# Entry
Amino acid sequence: MKDAAPETIYLKDYTPFGYQIESVHLTFRLHPTATRVISKIAFAPNPEATDKRFFLHGEELSLISAKINGEAITPRPVEGGLEADVPEGPFVWEAEVEISPETNTALEGLYMSSGMYCTQCEAEGFRKITYYPDRPDVMATFTVRIEGDQPVMLSNGNPLTSGEGFVEWHDPWPKPSYLFALVAGNLVNHPDRFTTQSGRDVELNIWVRPGDEGKCAFGMQALKDAMAWDEKTYGREYDLDIFNIVAVDDFNMGAMENKGLNVFNSSCVLASKETSTDANFERIEGIIAHEYFHNWTGNRITCRDWFQLCLKEGLTVYRDQMFSGDMRSHAVKRIEEVLQLRARQFREDNGPLAHPVRPESFVEINNFYTATVYEKGAEIIGMLRRLVGDEAYRKGCDLYFERHDGQAVTIEDWLKAFEDVTGRDLAQFKQWYSQAGTPRLKMSEAWNDGTLTLTFAQSTPPTPGQSEKKPQVIPIAVGLIGPNGDEVVPTTVLEMTEAEQSFTFEGLGARPVASVLRDFSAPVILEREMDDDTRAFLLAHDTDPFQKWEMGRMLTKDMLVAMITADVPPAETALDAIKTVLTDESLDPAFRALVLGLPSEDDLAQTIFDAGQTPDPAKIHAARKSLRHALALHVSDVLPTLGRQLETPVFVPDADGSGKRALRHALLALETLLDDGKAARALFARADNMSDQSASLQALLAAGLGQDEIKAFEKQWKNDRLVMDKWFMMQVSFAAPDKAASTALALTQHPDFTIKNPNRFRAVFGALAGNHAGFHAADGKAYQLLANYLIELDKINPQTTARMSGAFETWKRYDADRQGMIRSELERILATPELSRDTTEMVTRILSA
Ligand code: PHE
Ligand code: ZN
# Structure
């Protein structure tokens, strides 16, 4: 049953399940290779359904026995599960199955990680635990009994009873099977408490392997902050007596929002200053909040079907972004979000894997946990809020929560709440969910006697399966800056709905400069003619931090593209403008660090491709390197003073401390190009925190130095898995283009390399795919190596294999030789006997470009 012929599922085919579930009782008798799962489920006919077929999903299960209303039956095995004849009215289904968690390397269903039992059920993993209608629109209350000799045994909801060798849990909130969780193992907890706004006293725990207790305090604080934030910002409070978080080492994703029992990839929860960078701290805070926020957006109100995934993910990402902005800096956070969006979502939207935020079909739903569903999904919420305003946004959310609590709903239901509170028609806005591709927004301006006219034309390039595109609703936030640098018109949101549309600003004294798409008010590509002086002017005077940064970015990007395609030296205007920002002490150091960051090689390759040329990875790499050198020389006189100003004697992973370190580390990377590594070596030697230690090591590696330090780092951290992931990753990320593949290959021979741990696999191969010039080295060795390992990994973990195959999604950008090599690797993968459904779908889509 496992190797079912890939079948395409369509949104338009949705029909409700023929039965409702009153209650679910599960008993687990834990055993590494022979766990018994005994289920007792009370079904009743669903009055809203016409199809009365009684079909239960089930995969990789050994059925021991089945009963209906206490009588033994023999169900009919069918594709992906079983069928049975059932009575007319309500009935009780009972089954006993056997599963083998120890041999479950796919990390979906019940599996073992470092000796501990744990589950991952989203999206369709519960069917590997027992026979069940494993679809999100079937919601039920669960009672779970766990029998075993593990010291700690957890499930969803509140603890019911426990005794020698067993525990029982009861979750009073109806939930779909994908939110089920069980964890059992030798775990220790970091406990705390939280009192909700209505006075409920909640026990909080972060459960970890013995030895990791000291790495929980930061995550716990983030959890409490998130709980308080959701009460204050959305009026949502927690609804159980206990909230558990567990850290596991082997996990396909970042974390999972199982009701009352969140399971985390240990890399997304364990934090200490010795082992975690500032970026790690920030990410951990965001993910803890994200999973917690799912309690309302995802769990209490869930998705009718998996096509609605963005209903919970886009909204929850938007919520965690706002939380992080409130905790740190909105300006810095927004720029980081846009960087991510462009690097991952725009990249996806521009290639063969482009799909709508709400897809209309899929083969394997695990392949749709994408940047488009998550990040573009969040952008849609942000646009909706901008269009209806803050107050109506909150009212719409309140109505949505009130109306749909306890239900499994659709995007239509979400939007209807906002239509009802505002009286607005959101029909055109809804296209953001159905139309794939990144809209291009062309702007031109005219100045006439005190009136500025901005004219916009929108168009979206074709994407797979969608050749015709319609105009979308685009909120364009605009401000005007007068010639003396003062803002003459504050931020105004223009609402574009036509293919082409003009907006006028009247009664202006002198011709102002327009600051357009402030705060990145829509996920579009703005095309606008602007000379370097105007950009430098806005970089100096814009009041909108995102646009200020954007101007610096455009200056450096154009400069780099010119260096690559026209062999010109770096432009002085751009270098001066960056230096001015760098030394402007009125600006947040975190912001200055972002301005100093150069566009990635991948970004440059796409830009060159979009301009109608074929990107040459080696040339791009060389140009970026030479710009870094020019920049280092250009700012060398200010480096020593700046460095001193940015000292952070005590490590605090907050916005202020991390911002100063970000800038100091960016400067150190430049200095390392000039001082032969002296300053970086000194910092490495005295570092008392991972941020300083890894930044200094990376600066050395990027300059072709640091071999002794790499050895010292390994010696110091060989017993810490998460830090060793960094060690593996850094060497590949910073390998010279001609050494990337051989470095990765050598690291796979290291005794601590294992293909079974997704974090370790990603450390090496994610880094290889991310080393643009190395991955696309002309000999094709990196393509070949990645393909070899994807073929290996597919037998073990299809989900991670399929996700990593996205490394090839940009192949059509490159020259015929590279395209030929990639095509043959993709075809080789596809020809692998028994290739998983996950990887088959992804590689097929990539190849169809
Ligand atoms: N729902 C999880 C999240 O967004 C992601 C996830 C999906 C985790 C599938 C595991 C498996 O937080
Ligand atoms: Zn999520």
Q: What stands out?
A: Residues 332 and 591 are 6 Å apart (CA to CA). The chain has a mean pLDDT of 97. Residues 120, 122-123, 252-253, 255-257, 290-291, 313, 369 surround phenylalanine (ligand 1) (CB under 6 Å). The first strand starts at residue 9 and ends at 10.
